[in-house]
Write a structure and sequence with these properties.
Blueprint (H helix, E strand, L loop, with lengths): L17 E8 L7 H9 L1 H7 L4 E6 L6 E6 L4 E5 L5 H13 L44
């Protein structure tokens, strides 16, 4: 019997985490010019290339354009496309298609370890002599 790898995202078959992408635009607004051009020229190709994602185009009169992305984990992300050109909109859509939908978390420390040291963290200047003559330094062990 062949040994099968466990199913993880990216191993075996990739499952896009983006569930729905909605284009909101205004028919008359100047800030919606780029997204209107994108809708006229690129949305059909995008939908054919990504059949796993539902695409909606909604008219929002007198409002700035935006992209609303909804992910499989229930999170949503709103990207303003106010006064953006077609290339910038494509870049935002590519980012949304490849993202997981998990909100970024701030790291509390600059490093992480499973076994923290009680003596402190190592740095490259730990046992070096000081350039400044008045500063006392710890001599390296002999």
């Amino acid at each position: 019997m062949a040994h099968l790898a466990p199913m993880c995202n990216g191993v075996g078959r990739y499952i896009s985490q983006l569930k729905r992408l909605t284009f909101h635009y205004c028919k008359w607004g100047g800030s919606s010019k780029g997204i209107r051009e994108y809708i006229d020229s690129e949305v059909i190709h995008l939908a054919k290339e990504n059949p796993q994602v539902s695409f909606y185009v909604r008219h929002r009169p007198y409002r700035h354009p935006r992209l609303v992305a909804e992910f499989l984990n229930g999170n949503s992300r709103i990207v303003s496309t106010k006064n953006l050109c077609v290339q910038d909109i494509q870049r935002h859509i590519k980012l949304l298609l490849s993202s997981s939908g998990i909100k970024p978390q701030k790291l509390k420390k600059m490093w992480y370890t499973d076994n923290p040291s009680i003596q402190g963290n190592w740095n490259p200047f730990l046992h070096k002599q000081s350039r400044y003559p008045g500063k006392a330094t710890i001599a390296p062990p002999r």
